[in-house]
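note to self: dont lose this again. the chain is below, predicted strucutre after it. 474 aa total, dont forget to put it in the shared folder this time
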Amino acid sequence: MASSLRVGSSVLRQSLRTNAQSNLKSVGFTGLRCYSSKSKSLKDTFAEKLPAEIEKIKKLKKDYGSKVIGEVTLDQVYGGARGIKSLVWEGSVLDSEEGIRFRGKTIPECQELLPKAPGGNEPLPEGLFWLLLTGEVPSEQQVRDLSAEWAARSDVPKFVEELIDRCPSDLHPMAQFSLAVTALEHESAFSKAYAKGIKKTEYWQHTFEDSMDLIARLPTIAARIYRNVYKDGKVAAVQKDKDYGYNLANQLGFADNTDFVELMRLYLTIHSDHEGGNVSAHTTHLVGSALSSPMLSLAAGLNGLAGPLHGLANQEVLNWLQKMKKSVGTDLSDENIKNYLWETLKSGQVVPGYGHAVLRKTDPRYTSQREFALKHLPDDPLFKLVSQVYKIAPGVLTEHGKTKNPYPNVDAHSGVLLQYYGLTEQNFYTVLFGVSRAIGVLPQLIIDRAVGAPIERPKSFSTEAWAKLVGAQL
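---
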């Protein structure tokens, strides 16, 4: 009898495996990609590392919890909390000289180490997401599996599609993007589980599922907005056997250009994360600390990203460059560029795309885009103008004396690349930034819930109270 049961169970298991393989093939998979027994999944990898990380934090707080780590000046308080050390952000640290490091790795190191698409040269953003969440460089198979899993999760609810379709075409794409992400709250596994009652130790698992679903759906949402506002309203289906960057390029309508696909992979990787203190990252973290779902938290971050002092900056750079191009024409001499830069500064404007709150050298994200341009579009007139500005601007800004960092940041270059490949609709650029930023901020949201991070609630004072605190008479 026992032998018969074992045989029967074996037959049943084989039948289930066969059916599973058949179902996966029917949606575009060639094998058990998401559930491969040869490759440890992202969720399992994170869960395995979690206990040690929690113990590390507990020990750090126990042994050094009372240690003073810095001072706060009144200038910092009134200067937007600039430089105040007060946030925990595992994924990246921004060094004023070296630029951003993702889990200790520079952008060139990430470009070298992270898996790439077959025949491609740029890192896949799936690999960076894995690195940001776990601190480990994933294998090629693990990244392929993650690509397949995001593709499998990519179906956007019908009501969200209809919501986007009903938006007036002159509603800013970022407003539509935030609206659609907020509407996905209806699908939140975390919110539903929390309403039923779950243990704190289970928060991260539901946050993980929401984050995976959310990231998976963003390309389709972004593309639907783009195609509705600027094109024919038709959006290609996600190709289940392709990577994230390819699918975004394809749904936007640019996949026939392999260089643009490569640009999307690079763009999504380098724009993803930039420490936790920038507006979009901090806002996502702050709203998440109140146990709002990843959908509501990211939507809040996107609203911050939409501001002209944050994600809208690359659009402003491109506008400035185009005005400059009309003014200087084909004469890109050092003297001509220098004169235009001084005209900009003397009119009370800043040189957009130059300077940074933290960096004191050229942004490595700018450098990676410049290297891409040198390889793929060295003779483009607008790129040649950008190169001349890069050559002349630091000297002018140094002489001007009012810019702490006279070197370019990421925004000084990204719009030029998008423009070259035909994505000229500048109001849409921040939506692309938003898709990328989700890949950076959601890993930290998962980590926050996994380690039991509390609600964020700094102390504030009125001007009168601050004056009293520092002994001033007003």
